[in-house]
């Protein structure tokens, strides 16, 4: 995160809304952020505003600034106010190499860049809300910005770390209910966009510890299934715990995050005697509902804990595939489980607007966004009726 103080902050200077003032105080990083969010290339931006791709590159590096007449064109292209490009406000700068992607191999670089810029804006929204509302303090052992026991480290072994976090959060040894809500209660910002992103189908989930608050994004691109959703949340929690100071990209890290998630959701000492030695799908379906993990994960756990053989596990997966459209085995939408849907930022916004006099327009002005962008990131649907001209 960087902040450069500048007198021309949005809404604080009468000339700040002029293209000339924006050109004089142009923030190159804002152009990069806007371009990455739209996944446009420098060539495409150049074609829209009538300059060369090299010129756009120079704008982004800061070696030159765009002319004043180009500022409205850039604002129109990226659907932002012209003051969006002003320097002087907190910027959640996050390089894509600083985030953990669940599907790293299949996620193209420009999709990772877009996701990193998206996370940056989520942090900027969080920062703006924290000016008006006190959010839950960060209680994540090992996180350098943690506000509770910031020096507390957990074991590096995934299973041991999962057990230690359970103790730290006083979760006991049974099922973890309302996982996403618990993560938020301990200061982790969790975002779950309501709709899949058709432009980035390979982006599954991602997280980062490199901003002042740990942040997890759970996308809807792969499957709307609460059990997969919960395991993914625990997987990303594992990254935050185990890999805060390690550069992402090692596939070993993904395996460790899976091992953390399995132990965190189904502790070996608690689940081992409950797992069948012969594949009993009725029993597995019951464990799925009780422990909040999928039958597929439970079959894997059976094999991992030597309850069944590889051959039995293989046959079980085949049978599960055939059962995947029947009640009890087909995906269950996340919308049916309120405790697994993030609410912290939305409730902070509601509290700020109801008690501190903050309005949507004021918050948008602080961020130099359009009001609709604030609503989009908060997951607030536009309830206005749609005028359709025939």
TrEMBL record:
InterPro entries: Cro/C1-type_HTH, IrrE_HExxH, Lambda_DNA-bd_dom_sf, Rad_response_metalloprotease. Residues 31-85 form the HTH cro/C1-type domain. It holds the Pfam family HTH_3. GO terms for molecular function: DNA binding. Residues 1-21 are annotated as: Disordered. Belongs to the short-chain fatty acyl-CoA assimilation regulator (ScfR) family. This is Zn-dependent peptidase ImmA (M78 family).
């Amino acid at each position: 995160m960087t902040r450069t103080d500048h007198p021309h902050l949005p809404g604080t200077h009468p000339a700040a809304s002029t293209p000339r003032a924006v050109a004089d105080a142009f923030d190159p990083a804002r152009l990069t952020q806007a371009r990455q969010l739209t996944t446009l290339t420098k060539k495409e931006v150049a074609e829209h505003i009538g300059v060369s791709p090299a010129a756009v590159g120079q704008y982004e590096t800061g070696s030159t600034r765009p002319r004043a007449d180009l500022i409205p064109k850039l604002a129109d292209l990226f659907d932002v106010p012209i003051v969006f490009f002003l320097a002087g406000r907190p910027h959640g700068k996050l390089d894509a190499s600083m985030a953990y992607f669940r599907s790293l191999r299949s996620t193209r670089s420009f999709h990772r860049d877009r996701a990193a810029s998206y996370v940056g804006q989520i942090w900027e929204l969080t920062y703006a809300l924290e000016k008006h509302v006190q959010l839950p303090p960060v209680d994540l052992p090992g996180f350098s910005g943690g506000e509770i026991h910031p020096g507390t480290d957990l074991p590096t072994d995934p299973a041991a770390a999962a057990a230690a976090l359970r103790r730290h959060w006083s979760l006991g040894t049974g099922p973890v209910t309302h996982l996403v809500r618990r993560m938020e209660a301990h200061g982790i910002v969790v975002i779950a966009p309501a709709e899949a992103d058709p432009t980035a189908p390979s982006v599954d989930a991602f997280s980062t510890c490199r901003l002042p608050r740990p942040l997890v994004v759970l996308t809807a691109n792969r499957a709307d299934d609460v059990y997969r959703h919960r395991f993914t949340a625990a997987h990303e929690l594992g990254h935050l715990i185990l890999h805060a100071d390690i550069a992402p990209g090692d596939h070993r890290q993904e395996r460790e995050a899976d091992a953390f998630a399995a132990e965190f959701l189904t502790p070996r000492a608690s689940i081992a005697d409950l797992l069948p030695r012969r594949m009993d799908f009725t029993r597995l379906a019951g464990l799925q509902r009780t422990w909040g993990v999928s039958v597929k994960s439970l079959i894997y756990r059976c094999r991992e804990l030597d309850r069944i053989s590889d051959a039995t596990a293989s046959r079980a997966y085949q049978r599960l595939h055939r059962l995947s459209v029947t009640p009890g085995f087909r995906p269950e939408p996340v919308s049916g489980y309120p405790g697994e849907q993030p609410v912290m930022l939305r409730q902070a916004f509601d509290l700020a607007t109801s008690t501190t006099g903050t309005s949507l327009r004021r918050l948008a002005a602080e961020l130099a966004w359009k009001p609709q962008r604030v609503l989009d990131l908060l997951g607030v649907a536009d309830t206005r009726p749609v005028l359709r001209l025939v």
